[in-house]
Structures are given as C-alpha cells and as structure tokens.
Amino acid sequence: MSEEINNAMEPLPDANYYMPGKIGFFNSMYPDAAAANGVDFDKMTRIPDEEYQSFISPPEGKYLVFDESGPRLESIPEPDYLAIAEDQKDSLLSAATTAITVWQTKLLMGRTLTAAEMEKLNAWMDYIDVLNDTELSDAPDVRWPTKPA
C-alpha cells in the first residue's frame, strides 16, 4: 500500500509518487516535472512499484481514476446498448426524413410527382414504417431494415 513521505526525508531514487488532487504520477528522478505541476515530493505519497505497474497497465475491464483520495482502478461500465440502438434509430429516421423532404414539399405545394418519384417516396415511407416498428430490446443485435435504393 502507499506510504506517506515524512517531510524531513528525501524522496527515494527512482520511485513513483502521487499527490491527492493532482492527476498523474511523478518519478523522483524528475523533480522538475513535479515542480512544474505545482507539487513537492514532501507532500506526495509513494506508490510501491507493483501498485504503480497495475495503475499504468490496468487489468482488462479496469481504468485509472484520480481524485482527492489518490489513484484507484474502477471497472469500465458496460455499454448501454439500448441507448446506442435508440440513437441509431433516431439517426436512420432523420436520414429517411431528409430523403423525402423534396417530394413532401412538392406535394404540399400541390405539384404532381412523377411515377418514379412516387415509387421512391412510397419505398422510403415503407422503410420509415418498418424502422418505426423495429424492436430495440435485442440490442446490440438489432435487425435494421435495408434503406431503399
């Protein structure tokens, strides 16, 4: 475990330290780097080499956090697959809405669409219907509909 440095002691050669409230580690071989970051070795806590190594190369599923208590490892949270799928659905719906905007505008103005335009509009509207009905509870394995050509 980490050990407090006695203010009267010199830092150990080639040892690693941290100061609560500061982000990062400081090596005693580089006192100027510590001073440039506004810290003194006499206010720092030494980290044993094994603990330091676990911080700079965290085990799988962990990441390094610094706070007022010093460094610690925390578990990487699982992705929120449902939120990711909802964002994807919103993005696909937005793109589909953009794709049909010109045709909708023409219809609102009382203009007539060509047969090809009407076919494309209907294909996009069918796509939007299927997209709106797409089940997201299986995220991340959502079966997204294919966009019209």
TrEMBL record:
InterPro entries reported in the protein's UniProt record = Phage_T4_Gp38_tail_assem
Question: What's the superkingdom here?
Answer: Bacteria
Pfam families registered for this protein in UniProt: Caudo_TAP (PF02413)
Q: What is this protein called?
A: Phage tail protein
Recall the taxonomic lineage recorded for the source organism.
Bacteria, Pseudomonadati, Pseudomonadota, Gammaproteobacteria, Enterobacterales
